[in-house]
Design brief:
By secondary structure, the chain is an alpha/beta fold. It contains 13 helices and 24 strands. The protein has two domains: 243 residues, ANL, N-terminal domain (Rossmann fold), CATH 3.40.50.12780; 92 residues, GMP Synthetase, Chain A, domain 3. Helix 2 crosses helix 3 and helix 5 packs across helix 6. The chain is globular and about 65 Å long.
Length: 437
């Protein structure tokens, strides 16, 4: 599946560390040899060359990789490891970048065991592991290569985390399959010679005018993982001369649509047409064409790990995957996203955060008797997390924020805490979040 790596053509730089050609292939081969006898391996996915080597080793060795957020709280990490049951957990110190060995004589093909189990945001409870096949990863990357004319001559630059789809699949496995050079920087910034940039809207919004001007020589600037504010789109266009290209996907589907440079309209929220092989429809559309985005095709996941109930619930009776996203579609303009069917998925700083997971963390504090979490528009983050709290005794807002941060990843902490006497509820006891907003 990693075509460029098997031909010793790959060239990866992460921070100050660069491995290219035979050196990269040899490091991956040595790590792959150490995975013999394992079927599922967790990788603490720090933004390092060790993570790139470990994930690539798992892919070529036919081992399923479970990326773990290095900033996950103790409870979150414990859940992921207990649920996925890896036979080995790899940290940076377990990967020797100086070691060399041949790549496996018979690299794993697309029919081998799943490539990845990537855990979702935990919108309706604890995070679920989305099982992603090698065939799905290959279909996603080949479809994007076609849509964006992505070739071995490109140089991709990004500063994305390596524990979810954007940075790991698109930003790491993509270059290793296609053969383009990868430069992963500690913070998002211009890179000499880069022809492609991947980032989330928050990253694009934080670049200054000079940094954007230094990206004029690139051919493609891509934004994803969260909705793109219009003012960020306009500012990037003003200073870089580029209109940001958007794409759309989920952990369970990988990337399914992408705006094609030169062909598709560039407007914030316009995320292009389906890539090769993907079927898209709008389910139960209203008179304006607004409805749920539903999908079929080779990029879809195999299901949730050990959760056949959740897997079945994710599909319609006729076998289409239900994304939970609202949108409109036409063949000329492609897909336009317009929100969520539910109110409990918050997209903040390029991450997806499940309100229920944050609410559970808040309710574990002894002073909290009721908690509701919502997302509100934020010019920098896309959405900021807001906690609505009913307490039995006075408690400082910062104490509650820190309480969440100790159990969950830092990006899941509330940015606002608002104390109320009671939460509005229906007769059935369900919190009416629309009334809180």
């Amino acid at each position: 599946m990693l075509t460029a790596l098997s031909r010793a053509l790959a060239d990866v730089t992460v921070g100050e560390v660069r491995l290219a050609g035979a050196d990269l292939a040899g490091a991956v081969g040595a790590c792959a040899a150490g995975l013999a006898g394992h079927d599922r391996v967790a990788v603490v996915a720090t933004p390092t060359m060790q993570t790139v080597v470990a994930v690539a080793a798992g892919v070529v060795a036919g081992v399923t990789v479970v990326p773990v957020n290095p900033a996950a709280g103790e409870a979150e990490r414990a859940h992921v490891l207990a649920d996925s049951k890896p036979s080995l957990v790899l940290a940076d110190t377990d990967v020797d970048l100086a070691a060399r060995a041949p790549l496996p004589a018979t690299p794993a093909d697309d029919a081998a065991p799943p490539a990845l189990v990537v855990y979702t945001s935990g919108t309706t409870g604890p995070p679920k592991g989305a099982v992603l096949s090698r065939r799905a990863v290959a279909a996603c990357l080949d479809g994007l290569a076609d849509a964006w004319s992505w070739t071995a001559g490109d140089v991709l630059a990004h500063a994305l985390p390596l524990f979810h789809v954007h940075g790991l699949v698109l930003g790491t496995l993509g270059p290793l399959r296609i053969g383009s050079r990868l430069v992963r920087t500690p913070s998002f910034a211009p890179v000499d010679g880069a022809s492609m940039y991947f980032a989330v809207p928050t990253m694009w919004g934080r670049l200054d005018a000079r940094q954007l001007a230094d990206m004029r020589t690139a051919r493609l600037l891509v934004s994803g993982s969260a909705s793109l504010p219009a003012h960020v789109f306009d500012r990037v266009r003003e200073h870089s001369g580029h209109e940001l290209v958007e794409r759309y996907g989920l952990t369970e589907s990988l990337i399914v649509t992408a705006a094609r440079p030169g062909d598709d309209p560039r407007r914030p929220g316009q995320v292009g047409r389906p890539i090769t092989g993907v079927g898209l429809r709008i389910g139960e559309a209203d008179e304006t064409g607004l409805g749920e985005v539903q999908l079929t095709g080779p990029t879809l996941f195999d299901g949730y790990h050990d959760r056949p109930d959740a897997t079945a619930a994710a599909y319609t009776d006729d076998g289409w995957f239900r994304t939970g996203d609202l949108g409109r579609y036409d063949d000329r303009d492609g897909l336009r996203l317009l929100g969520r069917l539910a109110t409990d998925l918050i997209k903040t700083g390029g991450f997806k955060v499940g309100a229920g997971e944050v609410e559970d963390a808040l309710l574990s504090h002894p002073a909290v008797v009721e908690a509701a979490v919502t997302g509100e528009p934020d010019d920098d983050l896309g959405e900021r997390i807001v906690a609505w709290i009913v307490c039995t005794e006075p408690v400082d807002a910062d104490v509650l924020v820190q309480h969440v941060a100790t159990g969950l990843a830092p990006h899941k902490r509330p940015r606002d805490v608002r104390f109320v006497d009671a939460l509005p509820r229906t007769a059935m006891g369900k919190v009416q979040k629309a009334r809180l907003r």
